[in-house]
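Can't paste images in this forum, so I'm doing it all in text. The chain is below; anyone willing to post the predicted structure tokens underneath?
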Amino acid sequence: MLEISKVFEAISISLHVSFVSTLFAFFLSIFFGYLIATNKFFLKRYIVTVLGSLTSIPPVCAGLIVYLIISRYWAPWVGWSFCIHHSANDYSP
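Text version of the structure:
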């Protein structure tokens, strides 16, 4: 049976990681947003357009794209990459 302390530990770890990553992303985005807004540079218009269009992608789709990129190139042993990138006919029992 599931121990309640392990459940609370998992929830605590998840909340901690979420808080730290949100805080990190907040400060990083404030820094780069300030740089982009206050400086004039080559391709600024295109960078602002790309960043604006990324806000319309649902987080699940963005997460799936990042997962597929990471699992394909940096961690090919990770779960679903085997199912997605190899057909059933490639391997015989």
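Residues 1-40 form one domain. The longest helix spans residues 4-38.
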